[in-house]
TrEMBL record:
This is Shikimate kinase. Catalyzes the specific phosphorylation of the 3-hydroxyl group of shikimic acid using ATP as a cosubstrate. Substrate binds at D33, R57, G79, R136. GO terms for biological process: amino acid biosynthetic process; aromatic amino acid family biosynthetic process; chorismate biosynthetic process. CDD domains: SK (cd00464). It comes from Elongatibacter sediminis. It catalyses: shikimate + ATP = 3-phosphoshikimate + ADP + H(+). It is found in: Cytoplasm. Pathway: Metabolic intermediate biosynthesis; chorismate biosynthesis; chorismate from D-erythrose 4-phosphate and phosphoenolpyruvate: step 5/7. InterPro entries: P-loop_NTPase (IPR027417), Shikimate/glucono_kinase (IPR031322), Shikimate_kinase/TSH1 (IPR000623), Shikimate_kinase_CS (IPR023000). Its EC number is 2.7.1.71. Binds 1 Mg(2+) ion per subunit. ATP binds at G11, S12, G13, K14, T15, T16, R117. Pfam families: SKI.
Length: 184
């Protein structure tokens, strides 16, 4: 099976849903944010404090390259992974990309109590999330093979729909081999 990448904004469920979806598909699960924290021994908040966003993005690109070199794994990316063209190309080239489309109002609700996301340490979260959505949503769209709009209700139903879509993708015939050369 090809790698599966989950993309989408903060709070779209890449981590939460990704782990369970991987289990259902029988794939290993990796979360690029968690791998970065394990490797550095520092929280994402601390990395942003010390190295700034640019430092974090460098680390993120390196980890994504490392994870993409594995085969048949499901990877939850960070919300800003799509910002770099280099990352978008990598994801497209090495797997199926699933976009968890999520409106800002839902992000606000899901992340109400969260303090672990450095980009949300701001008095006006709604404004910040709207700005990020304007910049990033077209990039998520660009890189996506499958798009799943957020829905209310049990997370299990979303996991099941994504599972079914991925199973169908896998059973679809791949590009046919090129025909043998014909003689004039
Ligand atoms: N489909 C969903 N339905 C209900 N709650 C959800 C859903 N997806 C995520 N949540 C909740 O939203 C919170 C954030 O989700 P999660 O950490 O999985 O987001 P993420 O996409 O990994 O964000 P980030 O880009 O910041 O890593 C969690 O508390 C999770 O339980
Ligand atoms: O949307 C973002 O830019 C981020 C999302 C998280 O997954 C982390 O990668 C980090 O908090 C930055
Ligand atoms: Mg996450």
């Amino acid at each position: 099976m090809r790698n599966v990448y989950l993309v989408g904004p903060m709070g779209s469920g890449k981590t939460t849903l990704g782990r369970r979806l991987a289990g259902k598909l029988g794939l290993e699960f990796h979360d690029s944010d968690h791998v970065i924290e394990e490797r550095t021994g520092a929280s994402i908040n601390l990395i942003f404090d010390i190295e700034g966003e640019a430092g974090f993005r460098e680390r993120e690109s390196k980890i994504l390259e490392e994870l993409a070199a594995m085969q048949g794994v499901l990877i939850a990316t960070g919300g800003g992974a799509v910002l770099a063209r280099r990352n978008r190309d990598l994801l497209k080239r090495t797997g199926i990309v699933v976009y968890l489309e999520t409106p800002v109002r839902q992000q606000l609700r899901r992340l109400r109590r969260d303090r672990s996301r450095p980009l949300l340490q701001t008095p006006d979260r709604a404004q910040k999330l709207e700005e990020m959505a304007a910049q990033r949503n077209p990039l998520y769209e660009e890189v996506a093979d499958l798009v799943f709009p957020a829905r209310s209700g049990p997370i299990d139903r979303t996991i099941h729909s994504i599972y079914e879509a991925l199973k169908n993708q896998q059973s679809e015939p791949q590009d046919p081999p090129s025909p043998p050369p014909t003689r004039e």
